[in-house]
């Protein structure tokens, strides 16, 4: 009995100390285990790094980046700016060793062990990729007091929960040049993500040079495409960071760009096509009954596949409504002749043909979950994207795929283009409470964040991807029981600005947009509004896909705003707590925000108006007015019945969208009013 109590105490103590540790260290993803010692490794100019391991290219690159970021953050003039082999410096203060170079395949070992003592840091990994994951942890540990920067004494043992932790970037709807891709790869590596899924083709553009079918990039990209040399450059860049690159060629639907170049491959006889400028699901579809389609795809894939060394090749396969198939008599006859009763069966026929082509090229087929039809070979990987997340607890296509014998990855719940809170994504647990056999569990490879780019340009894409993707990276790397949302938000605040160290432009570009909006006048009033406004969510910003074309302006107020608006979060917390406790501290927080908002309209009015700003005037005015009213209430000053009526009508006004943003504090303003009754 005493032993049992002792064990329980130890477990409780361990849980307590782990949660305390989370208060101290701004690590993301949170490691599998971390223990403190009483040491402290001080950063000074004598710091040196050694590497022991064959083919140290990745680790050398990572150490150079580590040392630059370390000295940039600490201001320390480190004497030696590069790593050396252990044989040349047995006394190096940071010693890194690994056994082998990762092959960049799904089951690479990415584990590492880190030990920080007063005069020595040891980082041991099985592979070079494990070592570079550990270096990112080391850098996240950097902290300071008023006289020195140091690495706190800890021992960490870490390994990922899922082997596939990806980010998909759609470069078709809006093209994103290689510098955008590179900085996002750097950011991915900083939070230990390991798959870049490159959505290269869609209705709005074919973004890769083809030497054998040059009309694809010449006629279907507006000149915005990657040369094959650029593709190789990105694949190499990613490889150095331990990131696999999976290309996606979306077929047979989402094919308007392909058909713009080669209309004879389409399902509508005699049709010609133009690159799509709007967003949505469109009818142009490859003709699966036309042998020339398979010749085209085999030639194209044979040309393109060698640019991507990864085993996996994504063929899309989503959202084919088959309207052009239904309207084509010859296709209908083909279905009858081949005993294919539905369009799904016809698409499976097409997918199986593609699978054979890809097999010849030594590639495994990945497709969105529409490809999971009864005859689809189990060698395909199912990419789960549809269905409500609530459905996942009961199954969802991820679990269904694993149970049916497919390897599978999850994106449902990780659609960051829906502009929903990081909390929602963080709480998307891929497996939930579902009971799985060991084999079924092993088939769930992980997940991918999806950055569909209908509403993002190179100016804004970073602010849509980050920082939310860092929290999803944690969901996919860290143990299942790391779920404390408040703690995640606290760490994310720090990780957010550290992403700037690797070149992510999410914070700085906001002011670029606001200066453009105001014609370079004082932007502080717009900043205040942007801290309580968020872009319209779940695709309502672009109702029906026709409000914005691919070349519309994405330099509007909505583009400067972001999800999880910071003062809105602060206000919500203060109002929720104040409603429960009526404490002075929360009251003070509320008053300070209301004072900012109540004065803001005066500042807003000082900006010379232009057509981009004028639509915000009603929002700005009413926010100031309701804030003034609530200030009076919270300070127990007199308000009349008329004031109250005006307040209620102003609140109703504020519930409307303005210039594609919503004021996300409206409910909390109302809640505060109720709490003050
Ligand atoms: C998708 O979002 N259509 C895969």
TrEMBL record:
One term of GO molecular function: beta-N-acetylhexosaminidase activity
GO BP annotations, alphabetical order: carbohydrate metabolic process; ganglioside catabolic process; glycosaminoglycan metabolic process
InterPro entries attached to this UniProt entry: Beta_hexosaminidase_sua/sub, GH, Glyco_hydro_20_cat, Hex-like_dom2, HEX_bac_N
Recorded coiled-coil stretches: none
Record flagged with keyword Nucleus: no
Residue stretches making up the Glycoside hydrolase family 20 catalytic domain: 162-479
Keyword terms: Glycosidase, Hydrolase
Gene Ontology CC, one term: membrane
Enzyme active site: 319 (proton donor)
Beta-hexosaminidase bacterial type N-terminal domain location: 25-159
Family: Belongs to the glycosyl hydrolase 20 family.
Protein's UniProt name: Family 20 glycosylhydrolase
